[in-house]
UniProtKB/TrEMBL annotation:
Alphabetical UniProt keywords: Isomerase
Stored InterPro entries: Asp/Glu/hydantoin_racemase, Hydantoin_racemase-like, Iso_Racemase_Enz_sf
Catalytic activity: a D-5-monosubstituted hydantoin = a L-5-monosubstituted hydantoin; D-5-benzylhydantoin = L-5-benzylhydantoin
Domain of life: Bacteria
GO molecular-function terms, A-Z: amino-acid racemase activity; hydantoin racemase activity
Any single Pfam family the record assigns to this protein: Asp_Glu_race
Protein name (Swiss-Prot/TrEMBL): Hydantoin racemase
EC number, UniProt record: 5.1.99.5
Record carries keyword Nucleotidyltransferase: no
Family to which this protein belongs: Belongs to the HyuE racemase family.
Sequence intervals crossing the membrane: none
Length: 235
C-alpha cells in the first residue's frame, strides 16, 4: 500500500474535497489518498503574504503525515509554498503541483501556457517556471481574474477559465495548458474538450509523480540541503 497525503495549504475544507476527488481519480489500486486541510493559515492563497502564512500549517500537516506513516506528499497550491522546508522534514518525496504540472506539460508539446487566477500571482508562476527549468516551454502566463474561492461559488467561473485558456492557446501558439490553481482541478477535462489541447491539472500530475517515485523506491536526497533541520527550540 502506498499512502499519499495531499495537503491543501489553505484552510478551506470544501476546496480540499475537490482536490481529494481529483487525486483519487488517478491513484492506482494500491494507493491510498488522504486529502488534508491545513489547520492554520489563510482561507485562500493569493499573495506572497498568504504563501508565507500558509507554511506553518503545511509543515504541521507534513509532521502529522510522518506520524501516520505517509509515504509521500503533494503540496496542493500552485505557488508550491514551503516546498523546500517540507522536503527537509518529510522522509518520503514531496512534490508541488506547479512543479509537476509544468514538467508534465513539457512532455506534451513544444510549449505550454499557464492560466491562473489573479494577475498578482503571475510573477510567482514565472519565478517557478525559471526555478524548474521550464522557461523555454512556458510561452505565457495569463490571469482570468477570478479569486480562488470564487472558483467554487461563481457559476460563470468555468466558462471564464475556459475562455482564458482558449485565448492563451491562440495568443501564445501553445500546445498545452497548465491550470494555475488547485481550485481549477475539476475543470480540467471539460476545458480540454472545449479548447482542443491537453490541459494539465497539477493535483493529478503531482499525485502520479509521487506514486511513481514511491513505486521506484525513490525519495528526497538527505545528504545535503534537504537533510533534516538542525534540532533547536523554536519560540
Amino acid at each position: 500500500m502506498i499512502r499519499i497525503w495531499v495537503v491543501n495549504p489553505n484552510t478551506t475544507a470544501s476546496m480540499t474535497e475537490g482536490i481529494g476527488r481529483c487525486a483519487n481519480a488517478v491513484a492506482g489500486p494500491g494507493t491510498e489518498i488522504t486529502a488534508v486541510t491545513s489547520r492554520s493559515g489563510p482561507p485562500s492563497i493569493e499573495s506572497h503574504y498568504d504563501e508565507a502564512m500558509s507554511v506553518p500549517g503545511l509543515l504541521d500537516a507534513i509532521a502529522s503525515g510522518e506520524q501516520a506513516g505517509a509515504d509521500g506528499y503533494v503540496v496542493a497550491c500552485f505557488g508550491d509554498p514551503g516546498l523546500d522546508a517540507a522536503r527537509e522534514v518529510a522522509t518520503g518525496p514531496v512534490i508541488g503541483i506547479a512543479e509537476a504540472a509544468m514538467h508534465t506539460a513539457s512532455h506534451l508539446g513544444r510549449g505550454f501556457s499557464v492560466v491562473t487566477t489573479l494577475a498578482r500571482t503571475t510573477g510567482r508562476a514565472a519565478e517557478l517556471a525559471e526555478r524548474y527549468g521550464m522557461q523555454r516551454f512556458c510561452l505565457g502566463i495569463h490571469a482570468c481574474e477570478i479569486p480562488v474561492l470564487d472558483l467554487e461559488t461563481d457559476p460563470t467561473a468555468q466558462k471564464v477559465v475556459t475562455e482564458a485558456c482558449r485565448d492563451a492557446v491562440e495568443r501564445d501558439g501553445s500546445d498545452a495548458i497548465v491550470l494555475g490553481c488547485a481550485g481549477m482541478a475539476e475543470m480540467c477535462r471539460a476545458i480540454s474538450a472545449e479548447v482542443g489541447v491537453p490541459v494539465v491539472d497539477g493535483v493529478t500530475a503531482a499525485t502520479l509523480t509521487v506514486q511513481s517515485l514511491v513505486t521506484m523506491g525513490l525519495t528526497t536526497g538527505k545528504r545535503g540541503e534537504y537533510a533534516p533541520p538542525p534540532p533547536k527550540q523554536y519560540l
